[in-house]
Specification:
single chain, mainly alpha, two-stranded parallel sheet, 2 strands
Length: 237
């Protein structure tokens, strides 16, 4: 086909144009075959950009906050991955709902980690308007974050609820971390309210009972209670 076209161009007197066209075609054909091997398979495939990372490598090197940004703005990370197209706000809300559900199910976990317990404590404390740092300092003193702790006197769980106290708070399983912390925080809040937000008196009442605090009109002269308050305040302040 090429030779017939060139011949017509030569016969028509357009020799210069024919020669130029032939040179262009030869260059095109040479360039074309440079990209093919003998079997016709392409061998000079485009080289991927070094800036493009695999999805797995991004996950392994990302912090949690970066991973959240990745989900909401994948185009900014140059990641080769197929992400489900959905509303970013809806996806984030679903993720938060799922996280809350996992935290809410901690009571059914046989051996929850300390980080799971702390997360749960923070949520319950926030719900009741009690300083979560104070609650965590109290739990550290009471049980060392051991949900199965039991004292010689019979106090149980993370916040060491006595059986009568637990019953009065509606706690049916004091070794259930959620029930225990829910009841313990409500009891601590009642002591804070009773003593007008005085943390020292509230802690004294939590340890020795409000009757003892009322009897001595302050912190009872019990070495255990006094050391108890000092240790909690050291971790809280």
């Amino acid at each position: 086909m090429f030779s017939e076209m060139l011949q017509r161009m030569l016969n028509s007197g357009g020799q210069a144009a024919a020669i130029q066209r032939a040179a262009q075609m030869n260059q095109y054909i040479n360039n074309f075959y440079k990209t093919k091997n003998v079997t016709g398979t392409t061998i000079n495939s485009p080289i991927p950009s070094s800036n493009v990372q695999s999805f797995e490598s991004v996950l392994s090197s990302s912090k949690k906050v970066d991973f959240g940004n990745l989900l909401l703005n994948p185009e900014t990370m140059k990641v080769k991955a197929e992400l489900v197209k959905t509303n970013p706000t809806e996806s984030l809300n679903n993720a938060l709902t799922e996280a809350a559900a996992v935290s809410g199910n901690i009571g059914r976990i046989n051996n929850p980690s300390k980080s799971q317990i702390i997360n749960m404590v923070e949520q319950i404390a926030q719900k009741h308007g009690v300083d979560d740092k104070l609650v965590k300092a109290l739990i550290k003193q009471e049980s060392g974050f051991n949900p199965k702790a039991k004292s010689k006197a019979g106090a149980m769980g993370l916040m060491q609820l006595m059986p009568s106290t637990a019953k009065g708070l509606g706690v049916t399983d004091a070794y259930n971390p959620v029930q225990n912390v829910e009841g313990g925080i409500r009891y601590l809040k009642s002591m804070l309210n009773k003593y007008n937000g005085n943390i020292i008196l509230a802690l004294a009442a939590y340890n020795a009972g409000p009757a003892a605090v009322d009897k001595y009109d302050g912190v009872p002269p019990y070495k255990e209670t006094q050391n108890y308050i000092k240790n909690i305040l050291a971790n809280y302040l």
